[in-house]
Structure formats: structure tokens, C-alpha cells
Amino acid sequence: MSFDHIAVVGAGAWGIALANVIARAGRAVLLATRDPAGTEILVNRRESPRLPGVRLDERVGVAPAGPPVGAYDAILLAVPSQRLREAAQTIAPSLRKGTPVIACAKGIERGTHKFMTEVIAAAARAATPAILSGPSFAEDVARGLPAAVTLATGDESTAAALARALGSAAFRPYHSTDVRGVEIGGAAKNVLAIAAGIVAGRGLGASAAAALVTRGFAELFRFGRAFGARPETLTGLSGLGDLILTCSSAQSRNYSFGIALGKGQPALAGAKLAEGIFTAPVLLEMASERGIEMPVAAAVVDILGGRASVDEATERLMTRPFRAEG
């Protein structure tokens, strides 16, 4: 399989980073923007306010997103999870059967409870859905700093070919066929990163942070196994790896959002939208339907919904019955 012409839909920080990655890999790449003003800025300045100081590679073409994008060999959808369906529908009319369409968002669609590849399958029926996820910050990747991620689709040869097409010395995609495991790791860790940020913002200490991340990972693992994810995926880059990154750095929007909540700064917390805000209630609904216990995620949902203060939610977690670890 040859993926020489690749399009990236979405010119946010992650879209720009991925376009730079693909250019460095030697592929012809188009960055398809959803904002006419953003298109003009990128064409003229080769830099975006979303990633100040980071140049868009000169080999990256820029054009408005539209149906013609569907003619590319592979398409990456670098848009927020709740906008993924719209982006997939935009490219669907000209999509050739079997074209890989790769979700680069980490979340679950509200209302439908669909994972990202399920959204692609529903909105662009000709597509071969795939998912790209793992411990990676847009600025690091855009600047060419080393990063490793996981790329998953149902067919192993397609996943391997896509990984080769996107990979370079600094950007290492490992391929997998465990699509659901990769999706769950990316979605659940955003919710847990909010919780970790709350612990940091509240000044509860390093011991509490370690306990939170460890018990949070146990929740992620339980949820993943209930939905058929492989253990090695959940303990790999797109699961535990991504959780470690986003629960320890202010570069993470979810972690920063949690810090602001922990400090009692809701205005600051709302300044940047974090995927975990939208994923948290959906994750908990899906967990409840299958009888999966997720007390950390439930605490985040209660705080976001105004049903508990940070201190009240913390007390509930700390006064849960003593039990065996697992």
C-alpha cells in the first residue's frame, strides 16, 4: 500500500503538528482548514496563533476543507471529538472505498456513545476507520522533538503501512489492530487528567497525586477490558503512556483545567476547552450501563456538574470502604 498523498483536516495545534510530521516523512501533504481567516493567515505567515513561534513546513499545502479532500490516499481528522462527525461528513462525498480516515481526537461522542472510529464509519461509509493516539503534545511534535504513538485499524497490513507512511526518526507510530483499546485509553485518560490537575491545584501533595493516577488507571483498565480492549494496549503508549504524560504536565489542557478547578478559579478553568469535560459524563454513563465502578471519574463528573465541591468529592473518595487492591 502506498500513501504518498495525505491530507490533514483541522488547522489547530495538533493539525499543524501532524502536517509538519507528514512533510518530514517525505509525503505530499495538504492541511485542510475549516476557517477561511485561518487559511489566509497560514498561507501568508506560515504560522498559527494556536502554535506561536512554530513554523508550518514550507512543503505543506494549505486549502479550505471540502469534499475534494476525500480524494487523498489517507486523511487525518485533527478536530475535536465532538466535531469529528461533521469533518467526516465533509470529506465523504469524494471518498474512495477503503481510504483510511484516521481519527486524531481523544473522546467519545455525546448522545450516541460512539467511539471515534464508529463515528467515522457512520459518517463516511467508504472509509477504513483508524485511530492515532498516544503520549504527544502538539508543540513538541510540531518542533520535531521525539514522540511515540499508536496507530490502530482493523487490518494489520493497513495499520503497518500507515505507520510507515507517517513515521520518521522523531515520530514513531507503533501499529496495532486493537482499535477499541487505543480509543479507550485516549478518551479515559483525559477525564483522569482533570482529576490529577484538581489534586495538584488543591495542593494535596505528591503522594495523593500518585495514588490518584494509580487508582485512576485501574478504572481505565476495568473500563477497557469490559469493552474488549487488550491488556497490552491499555498498559502501552495509548493507555498508561498517555495517562502518565497528561497527568503530569501543564501542557495538557485537561490537567491545566483541573489545576484551575482545584485552585477555585472556574473562570480560568473555562478559558481553554478540554476534551475531558465532554467525555467525563459519557464515560460514566457507559460505565454505569455495564456495572463498571469508576469512583474517580464519578468525582470529576460531580465537580463539573456542580453536585459536589472539590473538597466534598475528595472526602468521598478518601472515606470509601477499605478493600483489597484490584
Care to describe what's here?
The protein is α/β, with parallel strands linked by helices. 49% of the residues lie in helices and 13% in strands. It has helices spanning 13-24, 36-45, 84-91, 116-123, 138-142, 156-166, 179-201, 206-226, 231-234, 237-246, 253-262, 266-269, 275-289, 295-304, 310-318, and strands at residues 5-9, 28-33, 60-64, 74-77, 100-103, 128-133, 147-153, 171-176. The chain has an eight-stranded mixed β-sheet with strand order 3-2-1-4-5-6-7-8, with helices on both faces. It starts with a strand and ends in an 8-residue tail after the last helix. The model has no long low-confidence stretch (mean pLDDT 93).
- Low-confidence runs (pLDDT<50, min 5 residues)? none
SS strand fraction: 5-15%
The string of secondary-structure elements, in order, is: EHEHEEHEHEHEHEHHHHHHHHH
The end-to-end span amounts to 43 Å
Rg from alpha-carbon coordinates: 19 Å
- The spatial strand order of the largest sheet comes to 3-2-1-4-5-6-7-8
SSE class: alpha/beta
Layout: helices, strands, pairs:
Blueprint: E1 5-9, H1 13-24, E2 28-33, H2 36-45, E3 60-64, E4 74-77, H3 84-91, E5 100-103, H4 116-123, E6 128-133, H5 138-142, E7 147-153, H6 156-166, E8 171-176, H7 179-201, H8 206-226, H9 231-234, H10 237-246, H11 253-262, H12 266-269, H13 275-289, H14 295-304, H15 310-318
Parallel strand pairs: 1-2, 1-4, 2-3, 4-5, 5-6, 7-8
Antiparallel strand pairs: 6-7
Helix pairs in contact: 3-4, 7-8, 7-10, 7-11, 7-13, 7-14, 13-14, 14-15
Summarize this, please?
Helix content is 49%, strand content 13%. By secondary structure, it is of the alpha/beta class.
